[in-house]
Each structure stands twice: as structure tokens, then as C-alpha cells.
From TrEMBL:
Its cofactor is Zn(2+). The active site is at 386 (proton donor/acceptor). InterPro entries: CARBOXYPEPT_ZN_2 (IPR057247), M14A-like_propep (IPR036990), M14A_act_pep (IPR003146), Peptidase_M14 (IPR000834), ShKT_dom (IPR003582). The lineage of its organism: Eukaryota, Metazoa, Ecdysozoa, Nematoda, Chromadorea. GO terms for molecular function: metallocarboxypeptidase activity; zinc ion binding. Keywords: Carboxypeptidase, Disulfide bond, Hydrolase, Metal-binding, Metalloprotease, Protease, Signal, Zinc. This is Zinc carboxypeptidase A 1. It comes from the Eukaryota. It holds the Pfam family Propep_M14. GO terms for biological process: proteolysis. Belongs to the peptidase M14 family. One of its GO terms (cellular component) is extracellular space. CDD domains: M14_CP_A-B_like (cd03860). Residues 107-422 form the Peptidase M14 domain.
Length: 426
């Protein structure tokens, strides 16, 4: 078994960035948790020990500052699993109850558990909850959407789209979105603001947009599997020349990066045509069942606000992310809303978020859903959240379960600000 570690790199000059970017685009043995963008921004990369042994001298030769962020990824995954098993036992003994429907929001769940929870809500609260599939994945799973609105209040209402789990390994995202669902449904009778949100808006929420990838990431403690990002589309192959006088080799890989597969500058900066890349864009825009399901649903409904949840880095992004310094005409509306939302978020546990476009705060990436929603589907408010942890914290995608509720609580405050803004649209 190979040992996997995560390195933290601090490039300080442009040629160091260029070197790392070349690795990022051309060497699929490296799994960039945080990819290179510009001088001063950290890079996090997971790699197996044999690759690390060859890579470290290259870093030293280029004077790239590096340190170990996680020495043994597998060990951390296993420790977290042990903790989860312990916690499950305690919880069972206490026999917790959340409202009328049992579901522990403080832990990571299987897709089957999520389905059961959503269906239980629909049965228990039929006057404001319904569940419907919006598409079927490559592996045959139905992607559930939960619609929350007061079915008795009539008239045209604005729609808010929320999705989580587009990237498989970002487990805190679906968990956070499930918390929103819980709040909207169970606080209806207790909280006048939430009553307003459910009476006067239509919430269309997909907590787990990429169930195939998510279930795959849950299926093993092997870092290559737990840290899976893409969906599970069937393998595509490419021929690679392996050097002079050698026959080309064929390599085949599964999965499309769903957040490169939307129709917004598809196939340009920050995406790859290599099926083995973590940022493989797919054969054409909306080639995937998950992304075409989003497109079809959003186009057929009156969506004013589009919220999509990722981890990690603590950034609240508005369009456009495909290249730096590129904004919509109503930038001021989006920016002021994002700033208000991030202030509300901070007010809970003093968690600091950066605010800006994906390209300006993280790295340019084409084919992203938040850009498509604004640029092509013409929603008013389109935001992408990169949830906890911040980049200084060591655990990245392996966020511990005790972080779920704090993350969800603070993020809900931001979402309420955006929902309130949506309500006050003319
Ligand atoms: N972590 C996200 C991703 O890689 C960020 C995308 C930001 N959006 C953008 N269009 N740049 O998909
Ligand atoms: Zn993501």
C-alpha cells in the first residue's frame, strides 16, 4: 500500500507558479486540493510517497517553500472513521429526536439515509414539502430534489435553487444543505422569518447532486477513493506517447468534473480534456446527467437565486469565475449582498470569509455552475460558497464531523440574508 501525504506549498515567484501549474495541468498523479493560481496563494497537493520522493528535490531546486500538511492521509481517514463509529454508538444510546423525523444532522450520511430523510419529511409535512427526482445518474441513482413552499399560499413566487455535493469528497456540503432543509421545515411554526421564506418563496433544494461520486468516496478508506471529486461517468481512454521508439500507451479513466461541464466558456481556462484529470471537463457542455438535470430544472422554473455549496477555503463567490476581473453588470448588487451575507456568517462564530469572484479569490475555472446560472440562465443572485475549513487548517476535505453543525449554523445565517434580499426584489 502506498502512503499518501498532503504538502503545503508557498510559491513566491511567478516561475514557481508556472512550474506548479504545469504539473497541475499535465500530471494526473498529483491531486491538487488547492491548485496553483498566483503569487502569495498557497497550494495544497496530495501525492503518493513514490511521487513525493521525486517531487521534493524538484521543489527544492526551484526554492519552493513546502511543509507537510498531512503526513499520512489514510491514517487520518481511518481515525475519523473510528470516531464516527464511536459517535454512532453514543447517539443510538441517547435516542435523539429532531422534530418529528429522526435524523442526526451532526454526522455524515449515506445517500440511502438522505433519501429516507427527505421522504420522511415529505410524508410528515405534506402541506409544505414534496420530493421529486430531477435526473438519473450513470449508475442509476435518482437525484432527489426537495421542494419546500407553503402549498396553500398562492400567486407567483420567486424560486431559490440550492445544491450541495456536486464534488464528491466535499462531504460538509451536503450536510450543510441538509441543515437548511431541516431549518426551513421544522422552524416554520416557531420563526416568523422562516415562515415568510416558506410562504413567499419556492425552495428547490438538491442536497446531493453527485450521489455516484459521493457513494464512491464513502466506499473505501483508500485516499484515491475517499478524495474522489468527479462523478462516475464510464471510462474514456486516450492514447499517450511514452517517448521516442516506444509504442503509445492507452489510459482510461472514469469521471467528469461536473463543475467544469456547464455551458459557460466550456473547455477554456482551468479545465482539462484529459479524462484522467481531476478537472476533466467532459465531452461537451452538459454531457453529464447531473449537470443536464440542473440545466433542465433551472430553465423550467422561475429561479431568482442560485446557491451552490463546495468546500474548502471559506470564500463566498459571485460571478464570473472563468477569468480574472470579469463581472456582471449588477456587480454592486451581488457584491453588497455577498458582503452582508458574510457579515451575518461571521457574527455566529467569528468565521472569516473572503468575498469575490472565483477567479479573483481562488483560480479561474470555466464551465462552472454559478457562472452559467448568472450568464446563461439569468438568475439575479448567483453565489458559490466554499465552506470550512480555511486554508491554514490542516484537514481540508477531511473535515471532522464535529465541525458539521457549526459550519451549517453559520452558513444558514448567510443564506437567510440572501433569501431576504430575494424576497425584497421588485
Ligand atoms: N472549487 C471550485 C471548483 O474548482 C471553485 C470554482 C469557482 N468557480 C469558478 N467558476 N471559478 O470547481
Ligand atoms: Zn468543489
Amino acid at each position: 500500500m502506498r502512503r499518501y501525504s498532503v504538502l503545503r506549498l508557498q510559491p513566491k515567484e511567478q516561475d514557481q507558479i508556472d512550474f506548479l501549474h504545469n504539473v497541475y495541468m499535465n500530471d494526473v498523479k498529483f491531486d491538487f486540493w488547492k491548485s496553483p493560481s498566483e503569487v502569495g496563494k498557497e497550494v495544497h497537493v496530495m501525492l503518493p510517497d513514490d511521487v513525493e520522493a521525486k517531487f521534493l528535490p524538484l521543489l527544492d531546486a526551484r526554492n519552493i517553500t513546502h511543509s507537510v500538511m498531512i503526513a499520512d492521509v489514510k491514517k487520518v481517514i481511518e481515525e475519523q472513521q473510528q470516531k464516527r463509529i464511536k459517535l454512532r454508538k453514543q447517539v443510538r444510546m441517547r435516542d435523539w429526536r429532531e422534530g418529528k423525523v429522526q435524523f442526526n444532522l451532526a454526522q455524515y450520511h449515506s445517500f440511502a439515509d438522505v433519501i429516507n430523510y427527505l421522504n420522511a419529511l415529505a410524508v410528515t409535512y405534506p402541506d409544505r414539502v414534496s420530493v421529486q427526482p430531477i435526473g438519473t445518474t450513470h449508475e442509476g441513482r435518482q437525484i432527489p430534489l426537495i421542494k419546500i413552499t407553503n402549498k396553500r399560499s398562492v400567486g407567483q413566487k420567486r424560486g431559490i435553487w440550492v445544491d450541495g455535493g456536486i464534488h464528491a469528497r466535499e462531504w460538509v456540503s451536503p450536510s450543510t444543505v441538509l441543515y437548511f432543509i431541516h431549518q426551513l421545515v421544522t422552524q416554520y411554526d416557531r420563526d416568523a422569518q422562516i415562515r415568510g421564506f416558506v410562504d413567499s418563496l419556492e425552495w428547490y433544494i438538491v442536497p446531493l447532486l453527485n450521489p455516484d461520486g459521493y457513494e464512491y468516496s464513502r466506499s473505501s478508506n483508500d485516499p484515491e477513493i475517499r478524495l474522489w471529486r468527479k462523478n462516475r461517468s464510464p471510462a474514456k481512454c486516450i492514447q499517450q506517447s511514452s517517448g521516442l521508439f516506444q509504442p503509445p500507451t492507452t489510459t482510461c479513466c472514469q469521471g467528469v468534473d461536473l463543475n467544469r461541464n456547464f455551458d459557460w466558456f466550456f473547455g477554456q481556462v482551468g479545465s482539462s480534456t484529459d479524462p484522467c484529470s481531476e478537472i476533466y471537463q467532459g465531452e461537451f457542455a452538459f454531457s453529464e446527467p447531473e449537470t443536464s438535470a440542473v440545466r433542465d430544472f433551472v430553465q423550467r422554473h422561475r429561479i431568482s437565486t442560485f446557491l451552490t455549496f463546495h468546500s474548502y477555503s471559506q470564500i463566498l463567490m459571485y460571478p464570473f469565475g472563468h477569468q480574472v476581473r470579469t463581472y456582471s453588470n449588477d456587480l454592486n448588487d451581488l457584491r453588497s449582498t455577498a458582503l452582508l451575507a458574510s457579515q451575518a456568517l461571521r457574527s455566529v462564530y467569528n468565521t472569516q470569509y473572503k468575498v469575490g469572484t472565483g477567479a479573483d479569490t481562488l483560480y479561474p475555472a470555466s464551465g462552472g455552475s454559478e457562472d452559467w446560472a448568472k450568464g446563461k440562465a439569468h438568475v439575479k443572485y448567483s453565489f458559490l460558497f466554499e465552506l470550512r475549513p480555511e486554508e491554514q487548517v490542516w484537514d481540508g476535505f477531511l473535515l471532522a464531523e464535529n465541525q458539521i453543525l457549526p459550519t451549517a449554523r453559520e452558513t444558514w445565517e448567510a443564506v437567510k440574508v440572501i433569501a431576504q434580499q430575494t424576497l425584497s426584489l421588485p
